[in-house]
Specification:
The protein has 230 residues and is α+β, with helices and mostly antiparallel strands. Helix 1 runs antiparallel to helix 7.
Length: 230
């Protein structure tokens, strides 16, 4: 009887702690952004997972999805609800989570290059993201690329339109950091992301499977949506 009571007390403490973590996360993220993220989670489960794994419950479907992804056996991005993509695209949440391309161009004479490389074209991307005060922040990155003359600039630019980066100052990252101590996986993952930038979805899937994360967990589901699905 004492053993059972200890288990019940432990479960109650964990439940209260988890609720506090969710409340803190949603407070930092904001009501509207939290509702948008919850919509995306629910849509992914009721639409994509149900269609792909009709004979599995939600937890098993998540595991099958991560297993296939870790092995490179799924092209899931082609099957995600188009309406949900548009929903995220039009929301503030997207710019809270990601730093997105605002303009892309190819420059043939970058000032930072030496004269001997002055003819090497450089791809430049101006990214836009939301700041904590609600204004937009901007940053510019540049990189060289493999090419053959003549350069098909339009196709190169088009292929980079979905190159997202992390919004390190947005409410989503701040919300995750506010509760990172409550999850060993989340803490280690955020440290890795801070050091390496955007992480390959296949690696994230592998790490989740290796560490046997709880696929019913509120935060794990949201990481799958933001770090893998979209």
């Amino acid at each position: 009887m004492k053993f059972i009571n200890l288990i019940l007390i432990s479960l109650l403490i964990f439940s209260c702690s988890n609720k506090k973590g969710i409340a803190e996360f949603e407070k930092v993220l904001g009501k509207e952004n939290s509702e948008t993220l919850t919509y995306l989670v629910n849509d992914f489960e009721s639409d994509f997972l149900k269609r792909q794994y009709p004979n599995s419950d939600t937890k098993k479907a998540y595991k099958q999805f991560l297993t296939e992804l870790s092995k490179g056996q799924t092209e899931y991005w082609k099957k995600i609800s188009e309406s949900s993509r548009e929903y995220l695209e039009k929301s503030n949440l997207r710019l809270e989570i990601y730093s997105v391309p605002d303009s892309i161009w190819i420059e043939r004479d970058p000032k930072k290059l030496t004269l001997s490389f002055s003819d090497v074209p450089m791809l430049k991307i101006k990214h836009k993201y939301l700041m904590p005060d609600g204004t937009f922040g901007f940053s510019t990155s540049e990189s060289s690329f493999r090419y053959k003359e003549p350069i098909d600039e339009d196709s190169i630019i088009e292929s980079r339109k979905n190159w997202l980066d992390i919004n390190y100052v947005g409410s989503y990252t701040r919300a995750l950091n506010s509760i990172k101590s409550k999850s060993r996986f989340l803490s280690e993952y955020l440290d890795m992301r801070d050091a390496a930038g955007m992480v390959d979805p296949r690696l994230i899937a592998s790490l989740m499977l290796e560490t046997k994360v709880d696929l019913n967990d509120y935060f794990i589901k949201r990481l799958i949506i933001t770090e893998i699905v979209y």
